[in-house]
Amino acid sequence: MTDNSRPPVHALLADGTTVRIRAVEPHDHAQVQGLYEEMSPENLRRRFFVASRHSAEPAADRACAPPRAGYRCLLAERQGQVIGLADYDTGDGKDTAEISIAVADGLHHRGVGTLLVEHLVSAARAEGITTFSADALSENHEVLRLFADLGLRTARHFDGPQVRCTVELGEDDTYLSAVEERGRGADVASLEPLLRPRTVAVVGAGRKAGSVGRAVLHHLRTGGFTGRLFAVNPSATSILGVPCHPSVGALPRTPDLAVIAVPAAAVPAAAEECGRVGVRALLVVSAGLDRARAQALLTACRAYGMRLVGPNCLGISHTDPAISLDATFAAGHPRPGTAGVAVQSGGVGIALLEGLSRLGIGVSSFASLGDKYDVSGNDMLQWWESDGRTDLALLHLESFGNPRAFSRTARRVTRRMPVLTVDAGRTDAGRRAAASHTAAAATRTMTRQALFAQAGITATRSVGELLETAALMHAQPLPAGSRVAVVTNAGGAGVLAADACAEAGLALPSFTPETVEDLLAVLPDGASVGNPVDATAAVTEDQLSNCLDRILRHPGVDAVLLALVPTAVAVATGDDLVRALTGGPARRAKPVLAVRLEQDLPVRLLPAADGGAIPSYAEPQAAARALVHAAARAAWLSRPAGTKPDLDGVETQRAHEVVDTYLAAHPDGGWLEPRVCAELLSLYGIPQIAWAWAETEDEAVTAAERLRGPDGRVVLKAYWPGLLHKSEQHAVHLDLQGAHQVRAAFRDFETRFAGLLTGVVVQPLAARGTELLAGVVQDEVFGPLVLFGLGGTATEVLRDHAARLAPLTDHDVHDLITAPRCAPLLFGAHGNGPADLEGLEQLLLRLSRMAADLPQLAEADFNPVLATPDAVSVLDVRLRLLPRRPQDPYLRRLR
Description:
29 helices, eight-stranded mixed beta sheet, flat, about 35% helix, seven-stranded mixed beta sheet, alpha/beta, about 900 residues
C-alpha cells in the first residue's frame, strides 16, 4: 500500500550497513517479483509452504496493488536493490492483522526482517491494530526466533507441521529495551569505520601550510595512526611524506574513512565519489554549505550507506594505541585517557581537549559534530557505553534530533558512567509567543533541563564548571549525601569555603562530642573544632592527616573540603600540608577536595602516592559546585528507575474519536469549548469541579440553584471562542448569591461582550485551598512537557514552576510536586494541613497520559487547580488541538 504520510526513512542493520525503509509502490513490481524468484527452493517453501516459483508473481501483484484499507507493505532496499519485504493485512477485521516477511537469500541474520517488523508494528499501532498473527512451518526457526526476540508478548500454537504465532503489539518497556539493544548494536557497528578505520584518506589536503586538510593530514601522521594513510590532491604525488593520488577512485585501497576538506561547492561531488568506490564513513570539516549542497551531501551518505560527522567541524580522535586516530586540526594531540567528548562547537571542543589533557584525565574518543547532519550525541553515548575504555562522558550539544530516544539512551548510560553537559543557550528567546499560562511558563531552557534531570545528566553552566565537576567525578567517589566538613589552616579561608558550601545548598553539620574530643587530641593548641575546623597555622602535616582521617570516620559527614593556604610556619618546619592529602590513599570511602586560593589554575588534580588524584580548586565556589553535582548524581543513582503506574478509567480510543471529530470540523485546530474540554478530562479520569453550561439567563439561574454550595454562592465565567485569560477581560463574576445576582452578572456579560458571548460556565464557589497550575505544552522537538507549580492570577509573575517531559514516571511526579518553591504549602506548612498529595499525583499522571496519547494536544492549561486536604479538582481548563500525526520517537531510523 502506498502511504505518503509515512515518508521513506533510512535505518541501520545489525552489521551497521544502511537500508532504506519505504512503502511499496506499483513500479516496484519487477523487483519484488525478482526477490521471490531468486530465493532458493528451501526459502520459498518456508515462505509459501510450497517450493514453487509460481508464487512469486501473485505475491508481487498483492504487494504492489493499489492502496486498500487494512493493508500495508514495506520494503527494505540498499542502493536501489530490494532486499526484504514485510506486510500486514487486517482482512475483514479491525484489531488483528496477518503478517508475512521475506528476506533476500544471502542477507539472513542481518536484521532485515526484524527491522521491517519494527516499522510495521509502529504503523499498525497508529492504525489501532493490537495483534499480529502469522503462520509458519515449525521447522522455520529463523522466523520463530524473530517473533520470540522482538520483545513483545508472543504465543505459539502448534498444529502438525505448522505453528500459529500471535504477537501482542502493546508498547511497554520490555519492547523498547529490546529495540534499544538492537539499535545500539547496529549503531556501534556502523561507527567502526569512522572511529576504528584501517585506512584513511584526506580529500583536499593542500600542498601549502595553512589549509585545514593539510593540518588534519599532519595530525594523522604525527599522531601515530596505525593504519594506512593517503592524501587526495590532483596536483601532488606526496604531501608531508604521505602518498598522494589525484582522486579517491585512484587510491590503491578503498579507505574506511574519508576526511573531506575541500571548498563547500566541491563537497557533494567528493561525497558522491567516495560513495561510489565503497568508502564507509565521511568526516566533513568543510564549512559554508548552502541548503542544496547540504542535502546533496546527506543524500550521497544515505544512498551509499556512509556514516557522516559534520560538516563544519573540528574533526574526530580515537586515542586507543591500537588505532591512534587524530583527524582534527586542533593545536595539539589529545592526551589518551578515559573521557569521551562530543561537541557541536569546535571552540568548546578545543577547550575541553586542552582542559582534560591538563588535568591528566585525557580522552578516549572525541567527536566534533559540527552541523550534525548524521552522527549525534546519542550515537557517541552508545559508542562509549560499548568501547570498554570510557568511564566519563562530556557533551556540549546545541540541538537534539530525537530528545526522547536520547533520554532513554542517556538514562541507561548514566547508570554506568557520569554524563556531563553544558546547558548552553539558557537565554534563548526564540520560542513562539505563548497563548496560555502554561505556554508562557514553558521555555526552551526548562524543557532542556527537564530532559537532563530525568536522564540523570549532570548539567553545568559553563565549560569551566564542566571541567571542575569532571575532575571530582573522575578522581573521587561520590558522596553519600550533601553533608560537608570544612577543614582549614587559616580561619578566613575556612569561612570563605563554608559560605560557598552553604550558598550552594550543602550542609555543614556539627560534630558529635566524641568527634570533637578526637579532633582536639590530634590538633595543636588553639584549634577550633566546629565546622569549619580551624586547625591554625601551626598544624603540621601529620596532625592534618590525622584530623582528616578522624573526620572521614564521622558518620555524619559525606565529604571533606580542605581550604589550605601557604604559611611561613609550614615553610619553617618543613611541613607540606598538601602532602597530608596526597600522601595517603587518594580514593577513600568519601570524597576529599582541596581549595588553594593561591592556585594559578581553576582546577588541578594533585597526584597521590597510590597513583590516584585529589582535585584542587582555586575558588571555594568551584569546589562547592562540583560537590553539589556529585551529590545530585549519587542521589539519582540511589533511586531505582521510575515506573509508569497503571491508570484505571482511561478511555484512550474514545479520546481519539473526540479529537478526530473536532479536527474534522476544524482542520486548522483551535481551542476547545468547555463541554468538549470536560469530556476529554472525564475520559482520563481528571477531576473537575461541578459545573454547568448556560446560554440564557434562565439556564444560568437554574444551574446556579442546582450547583450552589453550602453558603449558596456561585461563580459565572463568560465564554466565547478565543477567550483565554478571563481575569484580564473581567469575564468572571464571583460570590454570586441568589437569582437576582446571577441574572445581573449574566446581563453584564451580554452587554460588555455583545457579539462575542456564546455562553457561560456556572460553578459553585470553591472552598479555600492552594491554587496550583498544571499543564502541557507539546514541543515540536522534545514532545509533551508537563508543568506544575503555583497557579492563580499571579502565576506568570511569580513563575514558580517545575517541568518534566511526558510520559511521567512515579519519580517524575514526585519531583514535580516537590520542586516548586510553593511545595511546603502542599505538605502542611503554616499549620494548614497537607494537601491531597495522592490526588495531585493522579492528576499529573493522568495529564501526562493524555498528552502522550494525543499528539494533537498542543496545549493544556489547568489554572487554577485547587488542592485541599480532601481533594484536588480543576477549576478552569483550556485545551488547544492542532492537526498533528503521531510520531514514534523510538522507531529505529537515521536522522
